[in-house]
């Protein structure tokens, strides 16, 4: 599932290199006595909590929490399997997800319109976040949030730093406060390894500050209520960064030949927020907006934009607006932002990027991945399940089949290699 492979919503980025102490903590499962001592230590620091939390309340509730090694394993495997932009976007914005999202837009038009009017965030963006975070569903993780939050706080300790600087500790305290105040039903309180929960994947500390009641029943329930999840997402996008309704997230562009050198060679992502300036100035310098990519939502105006080239040149090039940064505050990942933006664009009737990715082997839709997985099962790879997710077991089977077919070694297939692999 996507949310297990990536930082979930509203999680602030981890440092690229973990401090030495934290790194040693994730190398081995934490012994039970060390976890218990850690929880006790957290109890002794509740005075530093961003919002009031009594030591005895923390201990009473946290004593039900357990160390969950899936958290540590997820922290370790994050960079194990390199993934390509064209694979991720092919799966996350495939026809199936567009169709399902359009169905939601149609079935809940009135509610989504109300939310759009209240927060000024387009309904397509809200539904796209829903689609990317949890594939439009409540099945948003399987780890008890209390366990995930306590385990994270113990694997990523903060020492004596002030509470405001200690995200993992504050997340554990927020989790306990939500349970103390019965703001979430304990039996449904499950989520990702990063302690994100609900239909649009909020972490407890963000939930406390940002989640709102969308359906007007007086209760905030982002697990059961779609409208509460959508309103909370829209509120996040409006309050953290400020959504500019008249602006798209991105404009696909052609970079003028005399300015291409700074974006080559390919394979290096380039994002230049410091170069933000009005679109008209880029156009004056020869940058050309590719008309077919123009999102329907683009209105008149001259937004400040800056270059973003996911894989350098050759490859798709964009000028992105402040709305790009606002989505990035929801989930600190350039790829996540473009997944949401492209899906939203397709939901609104727009098309895929005009410029091809620099590959002769484009990515697969989830339907194609499922067909591949069914074929792998027939070939005897019983461990593979046909779930449309290119996980480790599927990649193991691909590697074995590629070897059997005499194809170059690898753990991936795209459109071209799929045909080569599956030909009789
Ligand atoms: Ca509600």
- The number of distinct β-strands equals 8
Helices and strands: which structural class? mainly alpha
**Helix proportion range:** 40-55%
List low-pLDDT spans.
1-20
Outline the biggest β-sheet. 6 strands, antiparallel
Query: What is the count of distinct domains?
Result: 3
Give the rounded overall mean pLDDT. 89
Organism: Ramlibacter pallidus
Protein name: Lytic murein transglycosylase
Pfam families: PG_binding_1, SLT_2
Keywords: Signal
Keywords:
424 residues, mainly alpha, 3 domains, six-stranded antiparallel beta sheet, two-stranded antiparallel ribbon, 18 helices, 8 strands, globular, binds calcium ion, PGBD-like_sf, Lysozyme-like_dom_sf, Lytic murein transglycosylase, Peptidoglycan-bd-like, signal
Briefly summarize what is shown.
The chain is mainly alpha-helical and 424 residues long.
Structure description:
- This protein has 18 helices and 8 strands.
- It has 424 residues and is mostly helical.
- It has 3 domains: 2-79 and 139-239, no CATH class; 250-320, no CATH class; 366-422, no CATH class.
- Strands 3, 4, 5, 6, 7 and 8 form a 6-stranded antiparallel beta sheet that branches. A two-stranded antiparallel sheet has the order 1-2.
- Mean pLDDT is 89; it is low at 1-20.
- The structure holds calcium ion.
- Residues 213-215, 217, 219-221, 225, 228 line the site of calcium ion.
- Calcium ion (CA) binds next to loops.
- Residues 34-345 form the Transglycosylase SLT domain.
